[in-house]
Amino acid sequence: MRRALLLPLLAACKQVFGLQDPERPGDASVDAVDVDAPDARRVTCMERWFAGPTFSTPQLISELAGIGNEGDPSLTSDGLTIYFQRGGDIHTSTRTSPQAAWPVPMIDPQLSSPAGETKVTLSSDHTRGYIATTRPGGQGGVDIWRLLRTDTQTPWSFSQIYMEDVNASGDQHDPHLNVDWLRLYLAVPVNTQSIAVASRPDTGSSFSAPVVVSELDGANASEADPTLTNDERVIVFTSLTAGVRRLMYATRPTALASFSQPQELTTLNAGVGGGDGDAMITGDGCTLYYSSYRSGAGDLYVTELQ
Q1: What is the DSSP letter of 21?
Q2: Residue 23 phi, psi dihedral angles, 5° rounding
Q3: Is pLDDT at 229 greater than 80 in this prediction?
Q4: Residues 177/182/186/189 CA torsion (nearest 10 deg)
Q5: How many DSSP H helices and E strands does the chain contain?
Q6: What's the rounded mean pLDDT across residues 177-197?
Q7: Model's pTM, two decimal places?
């Protein structure tokens, strides 16, 4: 009853205070290329995912390694800024070109808090996005929060706008926005963890309650860390079985079709320590960043589709 009374009032407040502004689609960190453009490299990479992907030898991103474990990498669409979590804080580094080395990463004081944060997804202009955090004011545990600011000199505003039906008891992790910002992929506390998707009709509306993607739900495993290509036909995710993480992938013919049977990315999985996971695929499907414990700690690696 209290929820029914509060929702209309909340909607009115959003309009009055400008909080429910329609979000600009097409500038999220997943938006690395124009999916309608005749991009030969993108087409080649997508064809290789469907034929059975092969990869270059994973390379340690040594300049991002530090004391502790790195995970949950996320890149802006221009490939120049990376965000990742270490010790519950968001670290970031910005390079001068996609071919340049990463400068020493620093804790982002705006995105980090004593409460703890994991994955963040930001727009290329660094003014909006979504983050998984345990900060107070949510439903409890880890929740997905909306981020908004007018420019990079303005402090971030954290809100639950658009998220009224996404967050619930338990932990919601790993937000990934599709290109038009109408579908939010995340990990929800079903069967330990399951990959789900919340949708909405337009960018001025709230997301629906997450729906588990049943074809990705393993019988004896938990799944998390969804990352998709711009056209949403390829998904890479983490499967946790017997305490070891493995990278998996699945494909589908269209963005709204069911996924194929998930397959393990065997050449990328070292299978030691905490295993491999926390992937981030570029929008064209050509480059994959992920966290691996092959060296004894959780470090970030990068590999190219071949």
Answers
A1: P
A2: -80, 150
A3: yes
A4: 160
A5: 2, 20
A6: 94
A7: 0.88
